[in-house]
Specification:
Length: 219
């Protein structure tokens, strides 16, 4: 059942794209606090990758309003069409996050209410994708569940798949791919019960050449 629901996510959002966009609305409500924490770590006019951008509102719209440049990707062409309607000059792409390879690095990456639709193995496979699109000091924020498991909700009368790894595994995956956790909250009551991860790419530690010709780690 869980595997079937996971494989149907893209189709579900394609079938219900307009209804979802209407229900989602155009205003930030519970997300504002965490989005402010995310943008506080970014440079001005940052280039941001929105992974699972949906219809472009309200999250991407809020980032654009702050002067940032957003590249948005979503598996549902209907969602990307709405992004292009709202922001015709933007860079909006139909793409599956699991195989994403844009050949570019970003100052910020966001997977808000999207990454958690993947099954466990696909979530594990996303961390190299995050790493490959992270510029120096890049900021990453995503939502998950509070503990390892699967939760099947419902939207439009269809099963809606969510999954989560254990928090310790998320920390290990972030660390292994060069990120350090800046902030984390499980079932945050100030964010509508979301579980949120905010991380940043670690600075690479410098190396120097010793008198013998070998390399020595500094610091």
């Amino acid at each position: 059942m869980a595997g079937d629901a996971a494989s149907r996510i893209v189709g579900l959002y394609r079938r219900h794209a307009r209804a979802w966009a209407r229900d989602r609305g155009d205003r930030l409500v519970v997300e504002r606090g965490w989005l402010d924490r995310f943008t506080a770590l970014l440079p001005q006019r940052a280039e941001i990758l929105d992974i699972g951008c949906g219809s472009g509102a309200p999250v991407a719209a809020a980032l654009i309003a702050q002067g940032h440049t957003v590249t948005g990707v979503d598996s549902a062409p209907e969602m990307i069409a709405m992004c292009r309607e709202r922001f015709p000059d933007g860079d909006w792409r139909v793409a599956d996050m699991r195989g994403l390879s844009l050949g570019r690095a970003f100052a910020g990456m966001l997977a808000w209410d999207s990454f958690f639709h993947l099954d466990h193995d696909d979530q594990r496979g996303m961390f190299p994708v995050f790493r490959d699109h992270a510029g120096p000091g890049a900021v990453l924020m995503f939502t998950s569940g509070p503990a390892h498991g699967v939760a099947i909700g419902s939207y439009g009368g269809e099963p809606l798949h969510h999954a989560s790894l254990d928090p310790a595994e998320y920390r290990a995956l972030l660390d292994a791919n060069g990120f350090e956790v800046v902030a984390h909250a499980a079932d945050d009551p100030d964010c509508g019960g979301h579980t949120v991860w905010l991380a940043r790419r670690r600075a690479e530690r410098p190396w120097s050449r010793s008198q013998s010709g070998g390399l020595t780690l500094i610091g």
